[in-house]
Amino acid sequence: MTPTTARIKAVDTYDIRFPTSRELDGSDAMNPDPDYSAAYLILRTDAPEGPGRIEGHGFTFTIGRGNDVQVAAIEALRPHVIGRSVDELCADPGSLGRALVGDSQLRWLGPEKGVMHMAIGAVVNAVWDLAAKRAEKPLWKLLADADPEWLVAQIDFRYIADVLSPADALHLLRAGKQGAAEREAKLRETGYPGYTTSPGWLGYSDEKLTRLAQEAVADGFTQIKLKVGADLADDVRRMRTARAAVGPDIRIAIDANQRWNVGEAIEWTRALGDFDPYWIEEPTSPDDVLGHAAVREAVGPDIKVATGEHVQNRIIFKQLLQAGALDVLQIDAARVGGVGENLAILLLAAKFGVPVCPHAGGVGLCELVQHLSMFDYVALTGTTEDRVIEYVDHLHQHFTDPVVMRRGHYTAPTAPGFSATMHAESIAEFTYPDGRFWAADLAAQITEGAGA
């Protein structure tokens, strides 16, 4: 890569929303009507126009109202990014992460959690997208090829060094290099195993659940997931329906989306035990470390406990692991402070020997998180045993490098970048409230109201 004098000249933001609530796609016990949305940004540089001009794309995921709040949080970070050297950012993305987390006044709004931290993650991920594009590698390959010392330098060890020191991380990453070339070849040939939540949304009929579950098995998936937690009798019926549809050999995970108190989680999960659920996901508040430990002690080892989709930072993940509170750790590419913090979480999981099965779906989450799992396989843990990436067949067509599934496996991305770039046409159509779709939708509502 030839050094340049290019700098970041703009951070353009977009409030992008899709009307998924109208088909009940994504519906669960806590979120009955989600409109899958992305608080989206593009890092633009002052490099000369032409093929060599590269942009960094990033986003964080929301489910509708409040996406504008998330966009505002991203915009609050703009002064830290404008004018930064592109060469320096790409050589050390962790430096920007530390600067964003370290803004003392904005930090008060977290610290390192909530809307502000998700905004930091979106900006940091956009820098990693830019870095991978400039290196002409997909992000998973950039990470897998990277020098372990450089990767360690991208991680903030504050608050986790008592459990994972830089020396620990370096040891794990150096060990992960052994056999990496062979694993990369296997990844390119067979892909990374996935599981699908597409049959399991709470608003779907039993007929739709059965059809989608059977299609998932035919497509090569060996695990599906059902949403639970709204009504126990309904959940028993749906689990019976799903088990009849897929047979005894397909894993069925269940997901309560934080619906229960601890005692209720134990009782409800046990009531579904006859249908052999593989794990119970988010049985209670994502902040309740000891609550998760109590649930795990009560329902395990037959039923595993999984969580992480809403865990706000590496510190809570550290405590979940220390407390023995989970069997399956679920990172999210857009919840914490970007690639660097997810590297820390992957390393924590590797040290404790806990498998990582990422949360995905949403808008672009499948596209992003596949890179992290593939890096983990090739250059950290070296295994896919009991590891799967969630897959949901929604909205991939809006990305220039969409996920490609084959026989229930994620195929390894080959295009440079973090797979975060959306088509310009999709941005123009679904930007809220003035994009083509939403403007037409509002006009139709006004017309309908006038005729009533």
From TrEMBL:
It catalyses: L-fuconate = 2-dehydro-3-deoxy-L-fuconate + H2O. Pfam families: MR_MLE_C, MR_MLE_N. SUPFAM superfamilies: Enolase C-terminal domain-like (SSF51604), Enolase N-terminal domain-like (SSF54826). The keyword Magnesium applies. Its EC number is 4.2.1.68. The keyword Magnesium applies. Keywords: Lyase, Magnesium, Metal-binding. Its cofactor is Mg(2+). Residues 206-302 form the Mandelate racemase/muconate lactonizing enzyme C-terminal domain. This is L-fuconate dehydratase.
